[in-house]
Design goal:
Layout (H helix, E strand, L loop, with lengths): L2 E6 L4 H4 L2 H9 L11 H10 L2 E7 L1 E3 L2 E4 L1 H10 L4 E5 L6 H11 L5 E5 L2 H4 L9 H10 L3 E4 L14 H11 L5 E4 L6 H10 L3 E4 L10 H7 L7 E2 L9 H5 L9 H15 L3
Parallel strand pairs: 1-2, 2-5, 5-6, 6-7, 7-8, 8-9, 9-10
Antiparallel strand pairs: 3-4
Helix pairs in contact: 5-7
């Protein structure tokens, strides 16, 4: 198994037209675009960078579904060897969220759950997340989230790791948590939590690897070799863009393999 991208999505028109999407695209120099890639375009981008598998996210926010679990399931059906899914749930209806995880997340096609805190403006220690964490533990799958500042013009505070994610990792020691988007500017907190909690991981989505913070790269070259996973945030960034400068990280062959695929295989039971 080659490279695994742990954060991608095939955006729908309703998601592409969200007001916050315009501010996100400003970061990537694509202002004014409506980005709704096809499955074929997604696979072509993966092939260009030798990415074997992408984990496709569903998205749900306070106003409703932006990419539904059903839409992700259809995308997986079109390329079942290349795609896995991360389910989304409605935090404002905790029991429905639990039932949806039980219905959708089978550990095979859907291999985890993702909730983006800035979209809800709720930090991850809010009580409304806790049934979701329990359901993830029951299903034996990771909970994936976003850490650090936000690209969209939304509050970054829900992405702060301490005290919010620190509380969650204390309360749910069995829960695997994958923090996406690196965690900048709180890199010291990222490293601190990863050293403290054996079930906390970080992914590099939304960053080209040559732009990763030095503190995270140093961690990857040392005790964090087994704790950092590759991600892109496709279609905002392509796998080829994100892998540019990989040789400059100074990783050993074993560390590079862990980063690109082995860690993801272990964390998501691929």
């Amino acid at each position: 198994m080659g490279t695994i991208d742990v954060w991608a999505q095939i955006t729908t028109e309703r998601m592409a037209k969200e007001p916050w999407m315009a501010t996100l695209l400003r970061w990537t120099g694509r202002s004014g675009e409506v980005i709704t890639p096809t499955v074929a375009e997604t696979l072509a981008s993966m092939d260009e960078a030798d990415v074997d598998i992408s984990l496709l996210s569903a998205w749900h926010g306070p106003k409703g579904s932006l990419i539904s679990n059903e839409e992700v399931a259809e995308q997986i059906i079109q390329a079942p060897e290349r795609f896995r899914g991360l389910a989304a749930v409605n935090l404002f209806d905790p029991m429905d969220a639990v039932r949806e995880i039980r219905r959708v997340v089978d550990g095979k096609s859907f291999v985890g759950v993702r909730v983006v805190p800035w979209l809800w403006d709720l930090p991850p220690n809010d009580r409304r997340y806790y049934p979701v964490y329990a359901a993830c533990v029951d299903a034996g799958v990771p909970f994936c989230t976003q850490i650090g500042h936000t690209g969209p013009l939304c509050r970054s505070e829900p992405g702060r790791l301490i005290p919010y994610l620190d509380d969650v990792l204390l309360d749910f020691p069995e829960l695997k948590v994958v923090g996406g988007h690196v965690g900048f500017p709180w890199i010291d907190e990222v490293v601190s939590l990863a050293l403290k909690y054996p079930n906390f991981y970080v992914d590099t989505s939304a960053y080209a690897v040559h732009r990763l913070p030095e503190g995270l790269v140093s961690f990857m070259r040392g005790p964090g070799a087994s704790r950092v996973l590759f991600g892109t945030n496709w279609p905002m960034l392509s796998p080829k863009q994100c892998l540019k400068g990989l040789d400059g990280l100074g990783l050993t062959r074993e560390q590079e393999e862990a980063f690109l695929s082995e860690n993801a295989k272990r964390v998501f039971n691929l």
